[in-house]
Write a sequence for this structure.
């Protein structure tokens, strides 16, 4: 079984592939269960803000961890917020 919480969250690109800015680190809530997102949001996320990382998927099996350290792109977070302001919630 995959233990998502054991994946090193600090692995991955040092800069955002979309914006080219250095990634920052943040502590974000772990979301357990299957994420329910729309196709529209999924496409926008892939194209516009792939590194927003405002939460972290924890898989279906709920663990004790509630927070995870992730890398994120500050520009992606701005883009995500702007997209959500226009299109509504991601769920
Ligand atoms: Zn970015």
């Amino acid at each position: 079984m995959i233990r998502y919480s054991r994946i090193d969250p600090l692995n991955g690109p040092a800069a955002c592939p979309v914006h080219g800015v250095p990634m920052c680190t943040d502590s974000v809530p772990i979301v357990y269960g299957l994420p329910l997102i729309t196709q529209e949001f999924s496409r926008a996320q892939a194209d516009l803000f792939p590194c927003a990382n405002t939460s972290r998927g924890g898989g279906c099996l709920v663990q004790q961890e509630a927070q995870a350290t992730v890398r994120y792109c500050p520009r992606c977070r701005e883009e995500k917020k702007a997209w959500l302001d226009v299109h509504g919630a991601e769920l």
Observations:
- The longest helix spans residues 74-87.
- The chain is about 25% helix and 20% strand.
- The helical segments are 39-48, 74-87.
